[in-house]
Design brief:
The chain is about 20% helix and about 25% strand. It has one helix and five strands; from the N terminus they run E-E-E-H-E-E. The protein has a five-stranded mixed β-sheet with strand order 3-2-1-4-5, with helices on one face.
Amino acid sequence: MASQKQPYHVMPGFSGGWHLCKENALRASSTYRTQSEAVEQARKVARREGVELVIHRDDGSVKKFVHYGRNPSPLKEGGGR
């Protein structure tokens, strides 16, 4: 049985900046000064690997899901204001 690829997350860092993390990873793959820089790089990585990208807001809640894989998970795009 093939293992499912883990999505990437763009989330706020604990001490500032924005982290690009693979789901369930203990450490950030990389850190960026702004959310837009992190999202730009995350889109490239997620597209190349064919995985889902989860973009978080400043408060950590989910802002958006972007699907690059062949069979996106049944997750819904984050709602809210």
